[in-house]
Task: inverse folding
């Protein structure tokens, strides 16, 4: 294609200006990516990649919060376990006193002292039932139930339910020391109640002929301690079962925490593939476009000078 020598329209200059504009834009893009470390700095850089990265970011942030929730859940279970351990220790001490009294060699003052200690230990168990709390909520009084968010998605929940309404008897925890009635209130006689299946409530244990027990009675050791020991063994077994449930839930949460750590690593890797700039590649592009930019500037100067040739033809 032949091109005329004209003054008004400098086609060569327009072609070089277009190339210079393109190379300058590429230099700016590479400079921005190298400065920020991101391949996508705004949705217009890669709209599909931007949407995908935002979804990944939602998952990653959700995992961060979920791991904090899991740590809270573990702390909650540790609190419950510490209280249950204290209750078991108290029950073991009460059992020691009962065995000691059943030996038949203790004097009345010694039995009185043992009964006083038992009453204090039962009071302590009642206090633990009432006052064991996490974030202001009672854990061991038969009312505690939460759904813990342990993942970034709506269905990633885990129930910690120690309430009396829990259909799973093994997970109920209610440290009542009162007598279990039949009929009204009988639903409280579940695995979590320390007296369930024991044949007597904890406060009914009486060793002393002179000191009132918590039931308000004064008596002596019944049946040589057989009833008391059977009841205490059942109570300790119940509490041990509760502790096993708490430990199992804690292990479950620890496992979930480790899983989320691995999942977050994979999501971060996927997000990096989409969002992060390849520094080696962008450095190469920057160098190439800078050379082309400089070349275009030189050629633009020459193209702008070309119309001067037409002046030589004007007489």
Result:
């Amino acid at each position: 294609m032949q091109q005329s020598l004209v003054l008004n329209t400098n086609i060569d200059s327009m072609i070089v200006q277009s190339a210079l504009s393109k190379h300058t834009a590429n230099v700016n893009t590479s400079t921005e990516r190298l400065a920020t470390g991101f391949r996508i700095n705004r949705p217009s850089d890669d709209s599909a990649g931007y949407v995908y990265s935002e979804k990944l970011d939602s998952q990653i942030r959700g995992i961060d919060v979920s791991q904090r929730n899991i740590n809270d859940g573990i702390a909650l279970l540790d609190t419950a376990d510490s209280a249950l351990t204290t209750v078991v220790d108290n029950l073991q001490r009460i059992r020691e006193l009962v065995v000691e009294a059943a030996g038949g060699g203790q004097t009345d003052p010694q039995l009185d002292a043992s009964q006083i200690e038992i009453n204090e230990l039962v009071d302590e168990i009642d206090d633990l039932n009432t006052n064991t709390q996490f974030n202001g909520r009672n854990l061991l009084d038969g009312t505690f139930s939460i759904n813990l968010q342990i993942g970034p998605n709506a269905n990633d929940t885990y129930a910690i339910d120690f309430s009396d309404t829990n259909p799973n008897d093994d997970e109920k925890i209610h440290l009542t020391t009162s007598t279990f009635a039949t009929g009204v209130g009988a639903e409280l006689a579940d695995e979590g109640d320390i007296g369930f299946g024991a044949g007597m409530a904890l406060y009914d244990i009486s060793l002393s002929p002179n000191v009132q027990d918590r039931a308000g009675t004064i008596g002596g050791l019944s049946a040589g301690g057989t009833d008391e020991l059977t009841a205490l063994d059942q109570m300790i077994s119940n509490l041990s079962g509760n502790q096993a449930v708490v430990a199992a839930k804690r292990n479950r949460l620890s496992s979930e925490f480790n899983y989320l750590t691995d999942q977050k690593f994979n999501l971060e890797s996927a997000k990096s593939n989409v969002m992060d700039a390849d520094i080696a590649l962008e450095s190469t592009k920057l160098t190439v476009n800078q050379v082309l930019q400089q070349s275009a500037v030189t050629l633009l100067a020459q193209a702008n000078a070309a119309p001067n040739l037409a002046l030589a033809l004007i007489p």
Q: What stands out?
A: Residues 8-36+285-304 form one domain. Confidence is low (pLDDT under 50) at residues 180-191. The chain has two domains: 8-36+285-304, 50-274. Residues 47-102 form the longest helix (56 residues).
